[in-house]
Amino acid sequence: MPLVSMNEFLPKAKANKFAVGQFNMNNLEFAQATVEAAMEENSPFIYGVSEGALKYMGIEFTVAMAEAAAKKSGLPIALHLDHGSSFEVAMKCIRAGFSSVMFDGSHYGLEENIKLTKEVVKAARAMGVSVEGELGTIGGVEDDLSVDEADATLAKPEEAIRFYEETGVDCLAIAVGTAHGMYSGEPKIHYDIIQKVSDAIPVPVVLHGGSGVPDEAIRLSIAAGVGKINVNTENQVACTNAIREVLGAKADVIDPRKYLTPARAAMKAVIQEKIRLFGSSNQA
Ligand SMILES: O=C(O)C[C@@H](O)[C@H](O)C(=O)COP(=O)(O)O
Ligand SMILES: [Zn+2]
Predict the structure, then answer these.
(1) CATH code at 20?
(2) How many domains is the chain partitioned into structurally?
(3) What pLDDT does 264 receive?
(4) Which whole number is the average pLDDT over 103-131?
(5) Residues 6 or more apart from 207 whose CB is under 8 A from it?
(6) Which residues hold dihydroxyacetone phosphate (predicted)?
(7) Could you say which ligand is closest to the alpha carbon of residue 136?
(8) Catalytic residue among 82, 144, 148, 192
(9) Considering the domain boundaries, does residue 275 fall inside one?
């Protein structure tokens, strides 16, 4: 199966109240762990690729890994630019074979964010590519850039509804109290904001900062209208801990396969658990 737009599965997620996981791809082992977990669960999923990860992996390798996963698995998989910063980078990804893009204009004022997002939607739609927009500021560390928790601002429901109506995005990330990275305490998620926005728009709300959110908070978020959840840090932690364990026990290991095999298995376990929690098993 070729890579698909998120519209292949997000409308079903919204209607049937489950969420599709976006698992960030940072290298081959992340790509393999994700597709292996999804195949066992028969689940659709999204490969999220940040601009930093794109630079690290190279755009041709990124697309090739995602296409290989789609071909091997037969699952509906979207290859999605995560937190795209400009029209140009979004178009570059689409030209290279991405089936979905995020334009993150959340650091602009509302009017400018709407204007710039609309331009991306117009161009992407003509090529059958789905678009995610963002409103409000999500705290924590995103692709190595840190936003202080104190500077994080929640999305205003009326603005989010207007943003959807004017841009026509396929899903909408709104700041509702989660943050990128692991939490020191428990996140305070504003389910009322999710519910208000979700009730007023026909597309799902996206929850960024999915790592470390307690299971019950994930269930309540999905019940309120979240249909896409992004997870990156938990996989990075699982990967790195597994590598540390191997190298800590055997300092003379030099074959990367000796530590990358357990690292990949650890990520696969995390992803499989998330897919089950999000309710997307057997929704492919
Ligand atoms: O930082 C990245 O490279 C990706 C994240 O911004 C992603 O969009 C996301 O929201 C994942 O959050 P996390 O699970 O808290 O890392
Ligand atoms: Zn994010």
Answers:
(1) 3.20.20.70
(2) 1
(3) 99
(4) 98
(5) 19, 173, 176, 178, 213, 221, 226, 228, 229, 230
(6) 181, 209-211, 230-233
(7) 2
(8) 82
(9) no
